[in-house]
Amino acid sequence: MEYSYILINILSGVMIGLLYSLIGLSLTFIFGVLQFVNSAEGQLIMIGAYVAYWLFVLYGLSPLVSLLIASLLGLVLGMALYTTVVKRLMGLPALYSLSAAFALAIFIQELAKLLWGPTYRGFIFDMGSLRVFNFYIPATRIWGSIISAILVFMLYYYLYRTKSGRVLRSIIQNPEGAVLTGVNIYRYYLLALAIGIGLNVASGSVLTLYVSSGINPYMGDVYTNLAFIVAVLGGLGAPEGSLLAGLIFGLIESLLPAFLGNIPNVDAYPATRFFMFVILMVVLLVRPKGLMGR
Amino acid sequence: MQPVFLFRHLTLIVSLAIVSVLALLRIMLFEYAQMIYFIVFYISLGLAFNVFLGFTDYVCFGYSVFIALGGYAMAHAIKWFAGVLNPPLVIAIGLLLAILYALILALITGFIGLRLKEAYFAIATIGLAQGVRFFIEGFHVWGGSEGLIVASNIIAHYGSKWLSTISIDYADLLMFLTAILSILITYYLLNSRARYAFMAIKEDEDVARSFGVNSVKYKLLAFSISGILGALLGVSKLLKDQAIFPGEAFSLTFTLEALVITLAGGKGTLMFPLVLGILYAGLKYFLTTMFPGLQLLIFAVIVIVVVELFPEGVAGWLRRRYKGTLIEKIIT
Predict the structure, then answer these.
(1) How far B50 CA sits from the closest chain A CA (Å)?
(2) Burial of B224 (0-12, 13-18, 19+ CB in 10 A)
(3) ipTM of the complex
(4) Which of B131, B256, B303 sits opposite A277 (nearest CB)?
């Protein structure tokens, strides 16, 4: 294996890793504030991908534009979800919110199947490419990673540099303490779910900048698991860890197939997914609090 | 306390009576055999799932893995021993293998996941179905993504008469036995000392621990039993279908169905998941004919509505409705 080959894999790993950070971040952010495990993460990503697909196919909109529409849709969906589903679950044992989230994921998936059919869809959106060594990196991927980085940065800026972000962090650390200091905690729950789901759906549109094919109602499961792994490795409910964990997984995902592909009788894609699951279990066994968890 | 004790027996008697009536119907009305199998499958599914969820308040979202493992175990037994041993012996080996597979998986995932809070366990088990599936597909083990088909093995070694005997009689018999076993185990857990440990764990795990309840041990116990019962379901299902494909076997459908039955019925009870299993089979049959392809959508909505509005299910509603009367005490 040449060095340039490994280098290019590292580069593309970092690029996809930024998207994974974004995906894990929206999950861990929602969990941190609301203690709600959003197992519909992947299905909402699927919705974002469909938004990009339909806007491109019907109106010729670039995913860079539909991204904004997807995030607005996510904000509205988040608020709707909070008022209809999540709000009532807040005081109940974890069992109920977990079951509801699980059912929600299947609901979204089946709804998408009902609306758009089980067909695999895709579109071709070309913005040229950049030559690095002897490899061509599609410009859409570069845009995707830049946008992921911007979204991640925006959430961090919001959390660490604004007043309402500080309130949210206080809720993550100690919800009772936040209530005692006069925070209207329910308004922030609504806000957090809207932001979290907004990022979540937006990341689906960003995903189409990386991979614009294979959009189908059942694509979500893989991303739900990915979000879990990134969030758990980073520390569930600790937004700081997701960036690092996302990058680690981006690197693993782009480097592992290069090695696994050489082993006979092994399919690189499912084998990589299997190793991701093993890593999740190992992290849960060794350090369930994650890299940055408290 | 005496009448309460009697009434606890009553739930067992009624449950067994319901299953016996179904068994009698199966023998007398052979043309409805398929329908009755369907009903008993959902009774067993609800009860088997309930053994873990109902007693610990943890949910295993990867429950379909246990059903799939049971199927794979039986398929292995047929592939390996067909022609060498009698069909009943092969099935017995398949059952043992199924128990072994399920136990290994339950112990590994349980040991890692059950020491942690519910959210972490849920995350681990949602990944579980995919993890095992990608292992099978990625490394081309156990037939890879093509799955395992055993019908030809049975015909080649025992003839087509055995094929129908296995897929009709043995599969049905095993399903009934699994249902009865689930009822007995649920009943035992509801009336043994372990019940108090489970109650303490559900109320407050930290306090239970400080009182010397080995919470991980009890959770692992319930998880393993529930997993093994699921594997037995899978064995019967494989004998019925005579094939297993990873794409279907690891789908989340069974988990969602089990959640509907257990939560809507009333987790941690004996009678209600059983009755709901029957109702669910009927509802599913109705929906499949009326709205084909929409069942999952509808069941997902039912789970959300039940969780939001009736978190304790029918049992909880009845308990509240008849608070202070004998009926409340019967509903265990």
Answers:
(1) 13
(2) buried
(3) 0.89
(4) B131
